[in-house]
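The material for today's practical consists of a large collection of protein records. An example says more than a description, so a record of this kind follows:
***
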Amino acid sequence: MANSTIPLRNITSTGGTDTTSMTRRSFVKNTSGVSAASLLGTAALMTNSDEAQANTEWAEWFQGNYRLMSDDEKQEAVVRLERRYSSEYGKKVSVDTKPAEEGVLFGYALNIQKCIGCRRCAKACVEENNQSRGDQEIEWIRVLKMEKGGFDETKMGEGYPDGYGIEIGGNAYSAAGVVGEGEHYYDPKLVPEEDFFYMPIACMQCEKPPCVKVCPVRTTYREPDGIVVVDYNWCIGCRMCIGACPYWARRFNWGEPKLAKEDMNPETHYLGNRPRMKGVVEKCTFCLQRTRNGRYPACVEVCPVGARKFGNLLDPESEVRRVLANKRVFRMKADLNTYPKFFYYID
């Protein structure tokens, strides 16, 4: 399970057992000469248990990369996960594997002129996508609260003190326009706040994603419909993708995710909102468990001012294409040539 440690019971010379810990990375290295089939056959023996969850986790540990699985192997993985999740959360859990549809390239457009900074999108995303809660809450959507500045002539006499040999007016230290380095987390009584603007950020689903380029195990990749996904079972937790992403879009599970049974959304997708583990990276997937079944992402549905639009970029009649054709549109950090499919616009 990702890069977390797993206890292995070894028989000692005295007939007792001794427990050691090994990361997935070192375990795979040390067992590279042993077939996965033979190891899977000894799952119950290795775990010293007949418990279904323990043996299911062992089976997950040795399953192949999702992209390389046969249809039968994918179905076996789904059955294992549905059995384990249903037992763990006390409800019937489904794990969808619906692939990308031909002729679909998802795109997103956000009207920053309308956004009021309520952050309902972030909370709806947490609920829909089974993100960790409480003191370990993970949010895939950030909403930047940006302060409106201005030019104040009374500050002209301020600047460096005498003795530095440099004179700079005080306004050089003040915001003129909108300060982009805003607060990422805030909790006002009322929104929008006076003299503040808001700019939500999530995964841009880049056409040339830097995160994919740096992944050493190819656990993150771009799907045919443009969504960048993560195969959680193959993530080794190196976090190179987090460093490569210029949009602050990825999150890392430093501890065991906290997801209460009553909060768990049972309609999941293998590459999307199924429960994650400690030691893996996660991110926005345009709610592919919804969008590949003809629904809007949760953040689009919940926005109270209709600032969010979503659709098929290959369909000239889709909402997002109409926005691109008729509004003033820009992409964040376009100079990096990542070609995001997340667009910002104003009326």
